[in-house]
Amino acid sequence: SVGKEAERDASAVSRAGGLIRRFPWRAASDGGYGGTPRTALLRSAPRQQPDGKGKGLEYYLSQFLYLASLVLLLIFLSILVVKMVGSGWLDRGEESFNLLPVDCDKSTDNFCKTKQKDMTMAVLHELYNYLSVQAGNFECGNPENLKSKCIWVSEAKDHVMNVTGSSPQKFEAALHWILNSNKDLGIWLKGRDLSGPVSSVEEVFCLESAHPQMGLGCRFRRAVVTAITNLFLFFWSLITLWGILIFLRYRWRKMEEEEQAMYEMVKKIIVVVQDHYKEWERNLERYPYVGIFHVRDSLIPPQSRKKMKRVWERAVDFLASNESRIQTESHRVAGEDMLVWRWTQPSYLSDSEH
C-alpha cells in the first residue's frame, strides 16, 4: 500500500509538471509542483546570434572609425609640432639677426653676406607689399586720392625704412637688386619719362607694382565689369557681323535682280533693232539703223530712266561685246553725230531661225 501511494504521488507530480511546461504563467498558483517561472525561462532561453555577415560589417566599421580617429590625432599633433618648431626657428633667426655685429656691412664673410641678402629680401618683400597695396587701392576706388599707381621713390623709401628699420643704403641695394635681376620681381622702376627704360638707380623717379593687391569685393566688381564689357563687345561684334551679312545678301540679291533686268533689256533691244530692220526692208523706215538713245526712249519711260540707267549701260556694253548680229556705228542724223545700231543678219535667215 505504501508503494501504491508513492506511485500515485509520482504520477500526479508528472502530470502537474506537464501542465506547468505547457502553461508556464500558472506556475506560481499550482502549489510549486517543480514548475519554472516565466522570467527564469526567458533568461535561460538561448538568444539568437546575428549572422556572420552582419557581425563582420559591424566589426570592420568599428575598426575603420578607430583607425580614422588615430590618423586625425596624429595629423593634429604633427601640425602642432610644425607650428611650434617653425615659430621657434623664426625666433632663433630673429635672435641671430639681432646678434649681428655692427660692422657686418663692411665684412665679406659668408655669414655676413647671407645676412645682407636676407635684409635685402626683407626690404624687397616690404616694398612689394606696399606697392601692391597702393596699386590695389588706386584700382579699387582710390580712397587715398593717389594721382597714379607709380609711387614716388622718396615716399616708398620712407615707408620701407619705418617698417623694416633699415638704412637708405639697404633700400638702394634693393633697387640695385631689382635693376640687375633678370626675373620679374613684380616691381617696375620708372624714370621721369614713364615710358622710357631706367639704366641706373639715380634715374628712378617712381616705383609701380606689376601685381596690384585687391580685395575680394573689388576683384568681384572688376570681374563683373570685365564680363559685362566683354559681353557687350561680343554682342556688338555679333550685331555688326549680322549687319554685314544682311547687307551683303541684300547687295547680292540686287545684283542678281540687276543682271536679270539687264538680260531682259538686251532681249528688248534685240527685238526693237530687228523689227526696225525688217520695216526698213519693207520700205517703212528711211534708214536701216536706229539711234541708241531712240531705242532707250522707246523702251524706258522718262520717270524710270534715272533708276534704270545702270541696267541700260550694262545692256549696251553687253551688246557691244557679246552680240554679233547688232553692229554699233556712228552716223550723222539731223546734223548731229550719234551712235546707232544696225541689224547685220538678213531677215530671211532670222525668220528661218525663228
TrEMBL record:
One of its GO terms (cellular component) is nuclear inner membrane. It is a multi-pass membrane protein. The chain crosses the membrane at residues 64-82, 223-248. It comes from the Eukaryota. It is found in: Nucleus inner membrane. Its main location: nucleus. GO terms for molecular function: chromatin DNA binding. GO terms for biological process: negative regulation of BMP signaling pathway; nuclear envelope organization. This is LEMD2 protein. It comes from Scytalopus superciliaris.
